[in-house]
Amino acid sequence: MNTRSTPALLTIAALTVAVLAVSSSAPLIAFAAAPALAIAFWRNSLAFAALTPISAGPRRAEVRTLLSADGMYCVLAGLALALHFSTWMPSVQLGSVATATALVATQPVWQGLIAVAVGGRSAAPSRTAWIGIVLAVAGVAWATGVDIGVSAQAVLADVLALIGAMAAAVYTAFGERARRRLSTTTYTWSCYGTCAAVLLVVCLIGGVRLTGYDGRTWAAILALVVGAQLLGHSMFNYALHHVSATTVSVLILLEVPGAALLAWAWLGQVPRAEALPGLAVLVVGVAVVILGGARRRNGRAATASLAEAADPERA
Question: Hey, is 271 helix, strand or coil?
Answer without folding.
Answer: coil
